[in-house]
């Protein structure tokens, strides 16, 4: 019997609050890129608009994406996420496959089985994930070496554009557009590419449907078992005003109970609510979980009249995240939608020297 060595990031979390980066989509918008920019030469003939497919920028505008990663690292981020929130064949199909509903059909498991088996979509998803991880790896290593402080790459695994928990058909509540195995297959492909690109850990994030998250976590376990390599796992849910995951309606305690068997490095909340509304639910989670707690909320609620599309500026986010730290709630802090490198710099400065939340390490034996 042997004890798995402590991961260097876990050691950091026991001694200080680590900083995770901010919003890739928000920051991309500040560069003023157009539809032509995201298409480039490679996708110039695509039939659908691609500008909202931010993951694609990792292939068509790698200099910009690397610049964003650099700015977040220089702002103080210990952890940067890959630009792969929607980089599965299922999510990419929204941009490259005709919607059958436009021709009197519907999206259903038969439709998504073709997506899962589509070689071009699988190749595209693999390329986005692997290249984005490599971009992060290069920047994290470069800045880490220059500053003498190790930085970490988190492979971002998003919630998908489909739900396993809900039916889109009010007349057929048992109907699901996709199966658990199809979702799992899409995630397995993404996970392997993120690992191939050099990710240090995997983050299943912005969870609004707990069953989708379960599929991702099962996929991770299968990849680890089959490929013989394990990485730490971060898990982060998006909750509504009542503190429930948005589609599956689990309370934060129920959510923790559903995923704690994974023995994640951290559990936390992100996106959804602004930091003021998130506080009581984060406090509840911190009181239940025995692993590190992460929090990277939106910069308040959406506001189309603000520069970032959200209400809160860097000083506001620094104040709220400082309150999280003062309350002894967090080990990892950052920002989601509306948070630019300037927001992350302010958060990092506010949390410097603040003690992290105390948590018990789970010993893993083999």
Outline the secondary-structure elements:
Blueprint: H1 8-15, E1 18-19, H2 24-29, H3 35-39, H4 57-60, H5 62-74, E2 79-81, H6 89-96, H7 109-116, H8 119-147, E3 152-157, H9 180-196, E4 201-207, H10 210-227, E5 233-237, H11 252-259, E6 266-271, H12 275-288, E7 292-297, H13 314-326, E8 332-333, H14 341-351
Parallel strand pairs: 1-8, 2-3, 3-4, 4-5, 5-6, 6-7, 7-8
Helix pairs in contact: 5-8, 5-14, 6-8, 8-9, 9-10, 13-14
SSE ordering: HEHHHHEHHHEHEHEHEHEHEH
CATH classification class = Alpha Beta
Shape designation: globular
Number of strands: 8
Question: What percent of residues adopt helix (DSSP H or I)?
Answer: 40-55%
CA distance, first residue to last residue: 6 Å
Secondary structure category: alpha/beta
Which CATH-level-2 architecture?
Alpha-Beta Barrel
Stretches where pLDDT is under 50 for at least 5 consecutive residues are 362-366
Adjacency order of strands in the biggest sheet: 1-8-7-6-5-4-3-2
What gyration radius follows from the Cα positions, in whole Å? 20 Å
Question: What is the name of the CATH topology?
Answer: TIM Barrel
Beta-strand portion reads 5-15%
Oligomer type: single chain
Q: Averaging pLDDT over every residue, what do you get?
A: 93
Q: How would you name the CATH homologous superfamily?
A: Homocysteine-binding-like domain
**The biggest beta sheet, please?**
8 strands, parallel
Number of domains: 1
Number of contiguous helices: 14
Features of this protein?
single chain; alpha/beta; TIM Barrel; eight-stranded parallel beta sheet; 14 helices; disordered C terminus
